[in-house]
């Protein structure tokens, strides 16, 4: 076997949140994702009944999933790992829903989560995410100083807008992002600017930001391919979120079609992977 890319779609990103139209039923969402050619889905493993229902559909169609969880304490992770042991998952995507103000206070949490993951034999990636332990780039880099082998899921949109990098992004800030990517074992994808956490993919004025993220993801893929085993799988989750992530106009309508943008991103990432693969 060779290294593989698997592109997933976020179920959260399938929410419409329209005042005058209903949400798509869950089965409709899953069928849309399947029929569009995605390899799988990002699934919240908070409600066991929901997770069981979704993964049953995915399994029956040969698709994969990442299990998303939000523990605040070490023990919070235990039932989630038990559910993953029963239902399976490519990996657990852990958003650390704790906000210690010192690195020292984070260490017992990360050590505890890593210990439980090892005991369960489950791969766990810690996501870089807003309003979480990893919300700040500099703080997260200090966590990597303490845990050089910490496996991350990189959602870089939060760091671009959080640090509000000057444009064009300079070599110093690129190097900081590269440090994150050198510990990354999964990618979450949206396009941000230095002022907005999510912008429309195909607007002409946004193409500089698209190029920036494609460059970061290319670095991340190349870095992962050097570190991962010969038959390992890299996941990329398309995650164009609903309002208020998505910018809306005066009428409350979104400025672009997020579903179409997710399909474009899926194809862009696969093309990027293929180009890198052909070079090796």
Biggest β-sheet: strands ordered side by side in the sheet: 1-2-3-4-5-6-7-8
Radius of gyration: 18 Å
Quaternary: single chain
Low-confidence stretches: none
Structural class: alpha/beta
Strand element count: 8
Overall outline: globular
Query: Number of helical segments?
Result: 9
Estimate percent helicity.
40-55%
**SSE sequence, one letter per element:** EHEHEHEHEHEHHEHEH
Biggest sheet architecture: 8 strands, parallel, barrel
Mean pLDDT, all residues:
97
- Our measurement of the CA-to-CA distance between the termini, rounded to an integer number of angstroms, reads 15 Å
Strand content: 5-15%
Plain-language structure description:
The two termini are 15 Å apart. α5 crosses α7 and α8 packs across α9. The protein contains nine helices and eight strands. 44% of the residues lie in helices and 15% in strands. The protein is globular. By secondary structure, it is α/β, with parallel strands linked by helices.
């Amino acid at each position: 076997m060779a290294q593989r890319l698997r592109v997933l779609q976020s179920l959260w990103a399938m929410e419409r949140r329209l005042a005058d139209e209903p949400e798509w039923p869950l089965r409709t969402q899953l069928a849309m994702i399947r029929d569009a050619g995605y390899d799988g889905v990002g699934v919240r493993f908070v409600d066991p009944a929901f997770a069981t229902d979704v993964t049953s559909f995915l399994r029956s169609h040969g698709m994969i999933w990442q299990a998303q969880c939000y523990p605040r304490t070490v023990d919070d992770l235990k039932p989630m790992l038990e559910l993953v042991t029963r239902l399976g998952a490519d990996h657990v995507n852990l958003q650390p829903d704790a906000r210690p103000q010192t690195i020292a206070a984070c260490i017992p949490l990360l050590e505890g989560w890593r210990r439980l993951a090892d005991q369960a034999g489950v791969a766990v990636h810690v996501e870089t995410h807003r309003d979480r332990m990893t919300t700040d780039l500099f703080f997260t880099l200090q966590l990597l100083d303490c845990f050089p082998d910490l496996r991350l899921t990189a959602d870089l949109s939060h760091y671009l807008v959080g640090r509000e990098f000057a444009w064009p992004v300079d070599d110093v800030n690129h190097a900081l992002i590269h440090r994150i990517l050198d510990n990354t074992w999964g990618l979450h994808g949206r396009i941000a600017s230095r002022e907005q956490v999510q912008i429309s993919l195909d607007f002409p004025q946004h193409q500089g930001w698209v190029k920036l993220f494609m460059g970061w993801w290319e670095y991340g893929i190349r870095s992962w391919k050097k570190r991962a085993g010969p038959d390992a799988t890299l996941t990329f989750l398309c995650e164009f979120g609903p309002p208020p992530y998505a910018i809306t106009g005066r009428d409350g309508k979104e400025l672009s079609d997020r579903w179409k943008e997710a399909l474009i991103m899926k194809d862009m990432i696969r093309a990027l992977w293929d180009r890198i693969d052909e070079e090796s």
